[in-house]
């Protein structure tokens, strides 16, 4: 098996090669915990959790690490506005983040380091950069000396001339430089001592230090939203590759933005739908299908229509499972449908090939739909025995589980699936056209699916047999 992923750094599909001990190590930038996360923030969580599930199912060991940014300006500001200590506000929204993402049912990353628990590693890394002449202390802050790092701008494709740092800083040697350590301001209530005075880490250094602490230098995949390429990931590279030889990560994998009303969903723009609200309205499987029926590198609008489409896609899969359940319960064991066998084998193959090729979850869904067309057809034709159908169902569930949607509810066994309604409708048309042979054949197919058609004065009624 060869997995290829598009890397933002090389702008090509790169082969994913596990590290020396056979593990694929993935670091993903997590949320800043100053409020409930929105459905956009859930996109990297879902994409990278499912990437891990797929790799693990393919026999690859994976270590997935995703941080929580639990100290920064937004957290101080939100805490001040509420009149609570910033540590309390950050702890509350860290818990909320864990609780909200738990509801997706995708499990947790292998480690979720928090900045407030990683300060010694961060201070060590800053000290290394100062020793190497890549950083300097100035008036209680420490800055990265951008002009000293030759590869700066490679990830985002910027020239140094185009880079304008918006970060203020009285003691900066150059406007390009960014803060690694920020000296404490009087009203900041979460801070640490350091060789450069009291303060707290800059945003970018936290990920360099936490990634190295959890995964070592030179891991396989660095992930996050595409909005983080500049300056955050550019700065991470400057820090990590300034402190160590060799690339920070083999592949830089970025999800595109989820949008609401033609703009990136973002707390600062105010156009957000909290993940918890979305999960109150739709089951987790629908939310996951909403994400995965689009490619992670496509922009993704959030809308009622998109959610309805995801619901419809899941309903088709659930209907097929229900149809299988009914046929398995009512069928004999032994007949075998060679076409169905082929469809299942090919579908499974197509499913994994799609995920191996830049994690194409939409094509993986297409493979699932191909498979359920096959099971629906075999059940309607009555050509597959219960043993074969049971095996097909098991295969389907296994693949649904890779995508984290095996928990879909096939619904009550007496609900009438869409394909049965379609057959009943076709029979009615045949009757109207006085094609009774065809109408009878269609009634038999409906019977084979476990339903009976009764003709009433109001038209045909379809019920479980
Ligand atoms: P933040 O808390 O804004 O730093 O975001 C946490 C994670 O969510 C990062 O990986 C971001 O790139 C990602 N993210 C933020 N907003 C969106 C969005 N609208 N669509 C997709 N990913 C996003
Ligand atoms: Zn980060």
Brief rundown of the structure:
With 465 residues, the chain is α/β, with parallel strands linked by helices.
Helix content: 40-55%
User: For the largest beta sheet, what order do the strands appear in spatially?
Assistant: 4-3-9-10
**Total strand segments:** 15
The low-confidence parts are: none
Number of domains: 3
Write the CATH fold name of the largest domain: Rossmann fold
Which overall shape is indicated by the principal axes computed on the Cα atoms?
A: elongated
The biggest sheet, with number of strands, parallel, antiparallel or mixed sense and barrel status, is: 4 strands, parallel
Instruction: Please trace the helix and strand order, writing H or E for each element.
Output: EEEHEHHHEEEEHEHEEEHHEHHHHHHEE
End-to-end C-alpha gap: 46 Å
Question: What's the CATH H-level homologous superfamily of the largest domain?
Answer: HUPs
- Total DSSP helices: 14
Gyration radius, in Å: 27 Å
* Mean pLDDT across every amino acid position: 94
Give the CATH level 1 class of the largest domain. Alpha Beta
The distinct ligands, each listed once, are:
adenosine monophosphate, zinc ion
In terms of topology, how is this protein built?
Elements lengths: L3 E4 L4 E4 L7 E6 L13 H16 L3 E6 L6 H10 L3 H17 L16 H13 L3 E4 L2 E4 L33 E6 L15 E3 L1 H13 L3 E7 L3 H15 L5 E7 L2 E3 L2 E2 L10 H7 L2 H9 L7 E2 L2 H27 L7 H19 L4 H21 L4 H17 L15 H15 L3 H13 L2 E6 L2 E6 L1
Parallel strand pairs: 3-4, 3-9, 9-10, 11-13
Antiparallel strand pairs: 1-2, 5-6, 6-7, 7-8, 11-12, 14-15
Helix pairs in contact: 2-3, 4-5, 4-6, 5-6, 8-9, 9-11, 9-12, 10-11, 10-12, 11-12, 13-14
This protein binds adenosine monophosphate (AMP) and zinc ion.
């Amino acid at each position: 098996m060869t997995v290829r992923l598009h890397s933002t750094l090389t702008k090509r599909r790169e082969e994913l090669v596990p590290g020396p001990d056979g593990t694929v190590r993935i670091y993903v930038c997590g949320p800043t915990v100053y409020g409930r996360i929105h459905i956009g923030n859930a996109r990297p969580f879902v994409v990278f959790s499912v990437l891990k599930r797929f790799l693990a199912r393919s026999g690859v060991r994976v270590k997935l690490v995703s941080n929580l940014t639990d100290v920064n300006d937004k957290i101080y500001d939100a805490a001040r506005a509420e009149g609570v200590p910033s540590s309390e506000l950050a702890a509350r929204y860290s818990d909320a983040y864990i609780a909200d993402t738990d509801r997706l049912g995708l499990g947790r990353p292998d480690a979720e380091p928090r900045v407030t628990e990683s300060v010694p590693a961060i201070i060590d890394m800053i000290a290394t950069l100062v020793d190497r002449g890549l950083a300097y202390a100035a008036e209680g802050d420490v800055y990265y000396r951008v002009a000293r790092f030759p590869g700066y701008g490679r990830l985002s494709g910027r020239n140094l001339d185009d880079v304008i740092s918006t970060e203020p800083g009285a003691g900066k040697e150059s406007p390009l430089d960014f803060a690694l350590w920020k000296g404490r301001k009087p009203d900041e209530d979460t801070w640490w001592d350091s060789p450069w005075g009291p303060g707290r880490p800059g945003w970018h250094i936290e990920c360099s230090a936490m990634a190295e602490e959890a995964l070592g230098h030179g891991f396989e995949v660095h992930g996050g939203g595409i909005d983080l390429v500049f300056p955050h990931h550019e700065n991470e590279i400057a820090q990590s590759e300034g402190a160590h030889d060799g690339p920070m990560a083999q592949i830089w994998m970025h999800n595109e933005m989820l949008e609401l009303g033609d703009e990136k969903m973002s707390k600062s723009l105010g156009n957000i739908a909290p993940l918890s609200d979305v999960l109150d309205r739709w089951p987790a499987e629908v939310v996951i299908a909403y994400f995965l029926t689009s490619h992670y590198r496509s922009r993704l609008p959030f809308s009622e229509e998109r959610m309805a489409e995801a619901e419809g896609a899941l309903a088709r899969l659930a209907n097929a499972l229900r149809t299988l359940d009914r046929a398995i319960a009512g069928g004999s064991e032994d007949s075998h449908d060679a076409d169905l066998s082929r469809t299942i084998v090919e579908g499974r193959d197509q499913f994994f090939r799609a995920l191996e090729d830049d994690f194409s979850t939409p094509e993986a869904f297409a493979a699932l739909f191909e498979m359920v067309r096959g099971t629906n057809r075999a059940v309607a034709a009555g050509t597959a025995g219960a043993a074969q159908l049971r095996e097909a169902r098991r295969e389907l569930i296994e693949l649904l589980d890779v995508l984290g949607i095996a928990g879909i509810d096939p619904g009550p066994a007496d609900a009438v699936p869409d394909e049965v309604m379609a057959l009943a409708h076709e029979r009615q048309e045949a009757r109207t056209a006085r094609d009774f042979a065809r109408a009878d054949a269609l009634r038999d197919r409906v019977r084979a699916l476990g339903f009976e058609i009764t003709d009433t004065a109001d038209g045909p009624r379809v019920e479980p047999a």
